[in-house]
C-alpha cells in the first residue's frame, strides 16, 4: 500500500490527481520503508552479527537481495532511453532531453556501484527511486559495523548516532526530505528508529486483546491518513516515529486489520513492494510516451484515469515477473562454502 502511494506521488502532475494533499506528500512513505527495514533487519540479523567476521556474510546477503533488481531496472531505463532517442530522431521531437544530465555516463557508473546518492550529483539519476536503495545498502554496512564497534551497547550507539543526526536535523530546520544529497542521513535516522522500536517492542506486553488492537489499528490508520496530508518539511522528522508505531502495532497481527492484511494474497502483494518501487518509474515513462506522445491520448479525466490504471496494472504485472525471476536470482547461492567434516563424510 505504501509502495502504491509512492507510485501515485509520481503521477500527481496529472489533473485527476492534482490537489490531493495525501498523494502530494506520499513520498514520505519512503521513510516508512526505512523504518520497516530497521525493524525487520533487527528481527532477522541482530543476533547473527557478533563480530567483524559476521558482518561480511550479512552485507553480501543484503547485496544479493538488493542488487539484481536494481541492475535489471537500471538496464531497463537504459533500454528505454535508447528507444526515446529513436523516437526523438525519427518519429516526434520529445520535450525532455534524451540522455540528459541525469542520465550521463558518470551517473550510470555511480548507479552500478550504488553510490549515486552519496552527494555526487545534484539530482536523482537514471532510475530515480533507486536513490533509496543506494543509501539503504550503506546504512546496512554502518549499522552492522556499529553493532560490532559498540558491542551492541544500544544506549551508547543510539546516543551518539541520534546526537549527530539530531544536530543535522536541527541545522536543516527539522527537514529530513532529502534523497540524492543527504539521503544517507535520512535513511540511517529512520532505520535506527526501526531498530529501537523492535527492541522495545519485545519488552512490551500490552494485553490489549483483539478489540483493543483493532481499535488501535483503526486509530493509527486514521492518524497516518491525517498526518501525511498535513505535515510540513519542518515536521518531517516526526513522521518516522508515527510509522514506527504503526509497524509495531500491525506486526503483532492481533487486530482485525492486521489479520486481514496477513492473508495469503495481501502477503504476496507485500512481497511485490520492492519490485513495485523500483519498476514503476520506467513503466510510467513508457506508458506516458505511448499514450500521450505516440497515440496522442487527450489529457482528459478519462484519458488520465485510463493511463493511471494502466500504470498500476503494468507495474503489477512487471513486478510479478521480476519478483519471481529477478529479485531472488542470487538468493540460492551460499554465502561461503561450508567445509564437510570427517564425520559427515563418513556418514555419507
Amino acid at each position: 500500500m505504501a509502495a502504491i502511494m509512492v507510485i501515485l506521488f509520481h503521477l500527481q502532475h496529472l489533473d485527476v490527481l492534482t490537489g490531493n494533499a495525501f498523494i502530494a506528500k506520499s513520498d514520505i512513505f519512503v521513510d516508512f520503508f526505512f523504518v520497516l527495514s530497521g525493524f525487520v533487519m533487527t528481527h532477522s540479523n541482530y543476533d547473527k552479527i557478533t563480530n567483524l567476521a559476521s558482518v561480511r556474510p550479512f552485507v553480501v546477503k543484503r547485496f544479493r537481495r538488493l542488487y539484481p533488481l536494481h541492475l535489471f531496472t537500471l538496464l531497463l531505463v537504459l533500454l528505454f532511453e535508447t528507444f526515446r532517442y529513436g523516437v526523438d530522431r525519427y518519429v516526434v521531437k520529445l520535450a525532455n532531453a534524451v540522455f540528459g544530465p541525469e542520465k550521463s555516463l558518470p551517473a550510470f557508473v555511480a548507479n552500478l556501484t550504488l553510490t549515486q546518492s552519496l552527494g555526487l550529483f545534484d539530482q536523482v539519476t537514471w532510475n530515480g527511486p533507486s536513490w533509496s536503495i543506494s543509501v539503504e545498502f550503506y546504512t546496512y554496512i554502518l549499522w552492522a559495523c556499529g553493532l560490532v564497534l559498540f558491542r551492541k551497547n544500544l544506549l551508547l550507539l543510539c546516543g551518539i548516532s541520534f546526537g549527530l543526526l539530531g544536530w543535522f536535523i536541527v541545522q536543516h530546520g527539522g527537514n529530513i526530505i532529502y534523497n540524492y544529497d543527504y539521503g544517507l542521513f535520512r535513511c540511517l535516522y529512520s532505520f535506527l528508529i526501526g531498530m529501537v522500536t523492535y527492541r522495545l517492542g519485545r519488552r512490551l506486553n500490552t494485553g490489549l486483546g483483539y478489540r483493543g488492537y483493532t481499535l488501535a489499528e483503526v486509530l493509527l490508520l486514521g492518524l497516518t491518513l491525517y498526518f501525511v496530508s498535513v505535515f510540513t518539511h519542518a515536521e518531517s522528522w516526526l513522521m518516522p516515529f508515527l510509522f514506527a508505531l504503526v509497524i509495531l502495532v500491525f506486526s503483532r497481527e492481533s487486530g482485525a486489520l492486521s489479520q486481514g492484511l496477513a492473508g495469503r494474497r495481501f502477503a504476496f502483494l507485500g512481497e511485490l513492494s520492492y519490485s513495485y518501487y523500483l519498476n514503476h518509474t520506467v513503466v510510467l515513462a513508457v506508458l506516458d510516451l505511448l499514450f500521450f506522445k505516440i497515440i496522442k491520448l487527450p489529457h482528459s479525466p478519462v484519458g488520465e484515469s485510463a493511463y493511471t490504471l494502466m500504470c498500476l496494472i503494468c507495474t503489477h504485472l512487471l513486478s510479478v515477473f521480476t519478483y519471481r525471476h529477478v529479485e531472488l536470482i542470487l538468493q540460492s547461492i551460499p554465502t561461503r562454502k561450508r567445509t564437510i567434516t570427517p564425520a559427515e563424510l563418513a556418514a555419507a
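Confidence is low (pLDDT under 50) at residues 337-348. The first helix runs from residue 2 to 9.
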